[in-house]
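User: Here's a protein and a ligand (magnesium ion). What would the complex look like?
Assistant: Let me lay out the input and then the predicted complex.
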Amino acid sequence: MKIARIEAIPLRIPFTTGGPSGVGVWGAGQTVDSLIVSVTTDAGVVGWGEAFGFKTIPAIKVAIDTVLAPDCIGRDATQIGRLMLDLQKKFHVFGRSGALIYGLSAIDIALWDIAGRAANKPVYKLLGGSDASSLPAYASLTRYADPEFVAKNVTRALSSGYRHLKLHEIDVNCVRAAREAAGDDIEIMLDVNCPWSVREALDMTRKLRPFNLRWLEEPVWPPENYSGLARVRQEGGIPIAAGENASTAMDFQHLLEAKAVDFIQPSPAKMGGITELAKVFALANANNTTVKVHTFYDGPGLLAAVHASAAFGGPDAWVEWRYFDLEAQLYGEAIIPNKGAIAVPQAPGLGLEPSTDVIRKYRQA
Ligand SMILES: [Mg+2]
């Protein structure tokens, strides 16, 4: 079975978040951009993948259309690991993260979808299987930068059944508002997206310690300052999570060697797809570290995380759910967590079919 066609499809979908959401990297105005990728084989099997990207999606589409796809056409769709290694080696001089690896991630995920469809099994069964029919999902809130909106949306997420919440605030008052609204029994995580020096991060951990955070995510600039992160972990008194900006297995090995994290966060649509994600689960296991996948997206990249987490993760394999209210979902209601749990799809491949109506209505080119 050979790869016959690859199509990268940008989508732009309006959303609301129950308040201001001003990080400004998602898309134009109050919309979020995503890039889904279909791979079609000469046997007519179609698989779907997803590349991370938001505002940079035009660059990732070019990388797929002009560099990766021409090299994939005619290759054996069933030899995923070999193909990925070949392409990583061939194009390594153009960067070990960014557009090419994001694009490669999407193709890898689509090939796993194809493998499952061809074998008539859901991907998690190809990866080893699981008796988990659902996984805990945590609500990943956008940055509101306003204690009142934080409290309001924490309450809203709790009323939808979430028991684990992640904030993207950088202000202590916003974290206090969240803890006061949630009470003591809810797990709260704080993702600050790499703003601080090591010294600043340590100062902040002192202020944040009273709020009993499950983890502090990416406190240090730059994200690859693993020794600095390790110091914040050692001296800060709050568990540390990072990994969404690490790329391919070797980088995760470095993160673990540095003893920089309590929770490691590979992002399947960024770091190499299901093939690389499986390796990170093994590395994390050997280093006594818990994987909490990063999935600030809700297409095939999210499903890749669900299948890998079902197969390789334990009861603490929480899946990140972007707490956006999208005008339309690629997978309709089937993907939306129910009472804080996300279903592990049981149909072959990734197990859900993207809506052709949603693609037609929201595609950009
Ligand atoms: Mg993050």
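Summary: Residues 125-362 form a domain with the TIM Barrel fold (CATH 3.20.20.120).
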